[in-house]
């Protein structure tokens, strides 16, 4: 239960949609939507836009989880309508996250100024944190503008997840973490884990992404076929 008195008398840049900061987990997309609708009716949106508090909390949660399972990988999705007011602190948290099994996906909504988001994406050079004097260990940020893919959900999904396979592989390879046998029900024993290199090659294959319909892609992935040259697309 969300206490309206709390959310109307306190400013928070990082809170749980379900009103329970100790157990903020929500089950499936429908659950997220339901809690979002409930929360939006009990809070007042305001300025400034700060990302660092959420990223810091996320890094803390992932750091704890890594102690129990080194083979999990996490995605942090940010939906934003423009510039942020804590750019330096956000850079600090993103640089810290590059040491963790984390990818940060940012979707820009509307016609706001997204120059900060494009800077955070930093495809040309690694991010550098002035406070810690540290460079990002790897590129783990992807930024896309919703308006560039508006009306085409397949293209939006493709652009949003485009760098995720590479980012995940770079992390696990950098940590020398081998894929674990998931014992998939497959007659093709070549691939036993979708985080393996060949499976990621298939998912990143241009023909597979753009020319094969979604139902066929799911069928192929379920079969565990890794080599695009051996796939029957009929």
From TrEMBL:
GO terms for MF: calcium-dependent phospholipid binding
Domain of life of the source: Eukaryota
Gene Ontology BP, a term: cellular response to calcium ion
SUPFAM superfamilies, alphabetized: vWA-like
One term under GO cellular component: plasma membrane
Signal peptide: none
Domain Copine C-terminal: 9-180
Entry-linked InterPro entries: Copine, Copine_C, vWFA_dom_sf
Pfam families on file: Copine (PF07002)
Coiled-coil annotated residue ranges, if any: none
Name the UniProt record assigns to this protein: Copine C-terminal domain-containing protein
Source organism per UniProt: Euplotes crassus
């Amino acid at each position: 239960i969300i206490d309206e008195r709390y959310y109307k008398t306190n400013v928070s840049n990082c809170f749980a949609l379900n009103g329970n900061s100790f157990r903020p987990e929500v089950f499936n997309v429908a659950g997220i939507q339901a809690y979002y609708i409930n929360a939006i009716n009990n809070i007042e949106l305001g300025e400034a836009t700060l990302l660092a508090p959420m990223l810091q909390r996320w890094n803390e949660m992932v750091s704890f989880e890594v102690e129990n399972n080194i083979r999990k990988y996490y995605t942090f999705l940010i939906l934003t309508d423009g510039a942020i007011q804590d750019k330096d602190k956000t850079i600090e948290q993103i640089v810290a996250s590059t040491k963790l099994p984390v990818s940060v996906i940012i979707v820009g909504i509307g016609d706001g100024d997204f120059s900060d988001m494009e800077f955070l994406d930093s495809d040309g050079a690694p991010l550098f944190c002035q406070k810690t004097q540290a460079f990002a260990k790897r590129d783990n940020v992807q930024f896309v503008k919703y308006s560039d893919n508006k009306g085409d959900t397949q293209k939006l999904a493709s652009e949003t997840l485009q760098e995720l396979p590479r980012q995940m592989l770079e992390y696990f390879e950098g940590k020398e973490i081998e894929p674990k046998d998931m014992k998939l029900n497959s007659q093709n024993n070549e691939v036993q884990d979708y985080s393996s290199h060949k499976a990621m090659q298939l998912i990143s294959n241009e023909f597979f992404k753009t020319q094969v319909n979604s139902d066929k892609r799911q069928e192929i992935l379920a079969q565990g076929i890794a080599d695009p040259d051996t796939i029957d697309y009929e």
